[in-house]
UniProtKB/TrEMBL annotation:
Organism: Spathaspora passalidarum (strain NRRL Y-27907 / 11-Y1)
Name of the molecule in the record: NADPH-dependent methylglyoxal reductase GRE2
One Pfam entry name: Epimerase
Entry annotated with the keyword 4Fe-4S: no
SUPFAM superfamilies recorded: NAD(P)-binding Rossmann-fold domains
Oxidoreductase listed as a keyword: yes
Taxonomic path: Eukaryota, Fungi, Dikarya, Ascomycota, Saccharomycotina
Length: 336
């Protein structure tokens, strides 16, 4: 029996590497796109599998970015679009965040429609940012579900990079659903909408200076010294390994077609993460204890949500916060 070939755009991303790793463990063949050959070679070395190959797509925002890759690989049956810009060191929010996210998604779907009619399922990595009523729209009484859209406008998104990121996720996902509605392509679309993804990197850390954003949240707390205040940060989380598994369920499970999968395990706070440090890692006694009881207060004041529809489709038990944090911290402490 021939293995199904899955295309994963942005294959060297934090979530994407876990997706690729899980796909290969399930005997899929994976064709990943990366921005530079060095990234592809590094991922190939980590995977060490004949079932992985890569193509270079330097800029997903360019029209036809995926055309050549799909023309050259008619064996691709599933397309997972995880690539999206996410950086804060930007000068022009519209030019560097919003347009690349929207155009990158449209370009991927157009290429699949035109040059890969054999593709049955497309899965787009979106975000809780496209769902949650954040920033100036935050409402502590609002219960977010798979049906909700962040009410932010394009103009709101131009205010600062944080709002720009929220907007990039919302408008890119909306562009995907609009494309399917108008074009009626052969493939079925599913989106995966995670909040902050914690947990270990897919492979051992070689350079602590190159951690992804959510791992840097943990690493930043590991650097706290006595006398420092613990940040009053809180949000929702999900384990990165569960996000990856949701991407695979998104095309394996027929019930997921045409759905938004809102994968969230629950709330977290910086104080709660520090509490986990002190419970599990006695060598981290240098980190301030803070006020452990405030974790409950912080978690109760963040986003409320109901993702029961997603949980029913996926039929999985999502990992709890302590597992995600312990696994991530152990990996960071083992890194040079």
């Amino acid at each position: 029996m021939l293995s199904t070939t899955v295309f994963v755009s942005g294959a060297n991303g934090f979530i994407a590497q876990h997706i690729v790793k899980q796909l290969i463990s399930k005997n899929y063949k994976v064709l990943g796109s990366v921005r530079a050959a060095t990234k592809g070679e590094e991922l190939a070395a980590n995977l060490n599998s004949p079932n992985f190959s890569y193509v270079v797509v330097p800029d997903i925002g360019v029209a036809g970015a995926f055309d050549d890759a799909l023309k050259s690989h008619p064996e691709v049956i599933i397309f997972l679009h995880t690539a999206s810009p996410f950086r804060y060191d930007i000068q022009d929010i519209e030019k560097e965040l919003l347009n690349p996210a929207v155009n990158g998604t449209k370009n991927a779907l157009k290429s699949v429609q035109e040059y890969a009619p054999q593709v049955t399922n497309v899965v787009v990595t979106s975000s809780f940012a496209a769902i949650g009523w954040s920033n100036k729209y935050f409402d502590p009484t609002k219960v977010s579900t798979e049906e909700d859209w962040n009410p932010q406008t394009w103009q709101d998104a131009l205010a600062n990079p944080d709002d720009g990121y929220l907007g990039s996720k919302k408008f890119a996902e909306q562009a995907a659903w609009e494309f399917v509605k108008i074009e009626q392509p052969n493939f079925r679309l599913t989106t995966v909408n995670p909040p902050v993804a914690f947990g270990p990197q897919a492979f051992p850390i070689k350079n602590k200076k190159e951690l992804n954003t959510s791992a840097e949240v943990i690493n930043g707390l590991l650097k706290l010294q006595q006398g420092y205040d613990i940040p009053e940060v809180r949000h929702l989380f999900v384990d990165v390994r569960d996000v990856a598994a949701a991407h695979i369920s998104a095309f394996e499970n027929p019930d997921a077609a045409g759905k938004r999968l809102f994968v969230s395990s629950g709330p977290w706070s910086a104080q709660g993460i520090v509490n986990i440090f002190h419970k599990n890692f006695p060598q981290l006694s240098y980190i301030p204890i803070g006020e452990p009881w405030k974790d409950t207060l912080y978690r109760s004041s963040t986003f409320k949500f109901d993702n029961s529809k997603t949980v029913e489709i996926l039929k999985v038990d999502l990992r709890p916060l302590e597992v995600s944090i312990v696994d991530a911290v152990q990996q960071i402490l083992e890194a040079k």
